[in-house]
Amino acid sequence: MKIALIGYGKMGKTIEQIAKERGHEIVLTIDINNQDELTVENLKKADVAIEFTIPASAIANYEVCLKSGVPVVSGTTGWLDKKEDVIKMMNDNDGTFFYASNFSLGVNLFFALNKRLAKLMEGRSEYDVRMEEVHHTQKLDAPSGTAITLAEDLFDILPSKNSWTLDEPKSESEMNIKAIRERQVPGIHRIRYESDIDYIEIEHSAKSRHGFALGAVLAAEFSFGKKGMLTMNDLLNI
Fold first, then answer.
1. Is the separation of the CB atoms in 229 and 90 below 8 Å?
2. What is the SS3 assignment for 77-106?
3. What are φ and ψ of residue 2, in 5° steps?
């Protein structure tokens, strides 16, 4: 499979390594120094594009990929306020868009565990829930896209919570997410339910970027030949 890499930082380089190990060819690499090369003509050389950039450039990147007819796999977070626009763009171009806030197999199992624990805690008012996420200092968005996904899954289940805040909650319906930035931390997410007498906590901690990168390549393989909006639930059949 021929892959276009949009975003060639540490994650992009790890994706490149894994893609080549799996027998794929990188036919286009885009970073901050050659953004003018991200064209429909150049993208037509690829079977799929993998996009890991920043929120400010993501939407424009999706547009040129979809106009070129190339499936796009994206792990960029911080743009979901434009999600409906992206879906329309995808439909208008009869395209393929695979999005995940986190491509790690372990994190997506953690998503399922989070929902299961929330169902068990539903209606138990003696427990309050909060979240903590820790990432490297180069991560621009806070909280992380993974933390937001975890929070939204909680809100769908727990009647006592309907929004998150990085600050001290102003009401019982708000959930605090503590976002910590430290050097060389690939990603840690913790969810804690605490009462006056005990607490229950679940955690996922990434050891390296390898799991995220492998998931992105698997998503690219899965997207080839398909149409529409795809997620890790489709890939993992969760």
1. yes
2. CCCHHHHHHHHHHHHHCCCEEEECCCCCHH
3. -100, 125
> Quick check: bond before 159 cis, omega within 30?
no
> Would residue 189 show up in a list of annotated catalytic residues for this protein?
no
Concerning whether 135 is annotated as a catalytic residue, the answer is yes
What is the pTM for the complete model shown? 0.79
Q: Which of 135, 161, 189, 204 is catalytic?
A: 135
Domain carrying residue 90: 2-103+210-236
Q: What is the mean pLDDT of residues 49-65?
A: 95
CATH of the domain at 149: 3.30.360.10
Catalytic, out of 82, 88, 115, 139 = 139
Q: What is the pLDDT of residues 131-171, one digit of tens each?
A: 999 998 888 788 988 899 999 999 999 999 999 999 999 99
pLDDT tens-digit map of 169-206: 999 999 999 999 998 888 899 999 999 999 999 999 98
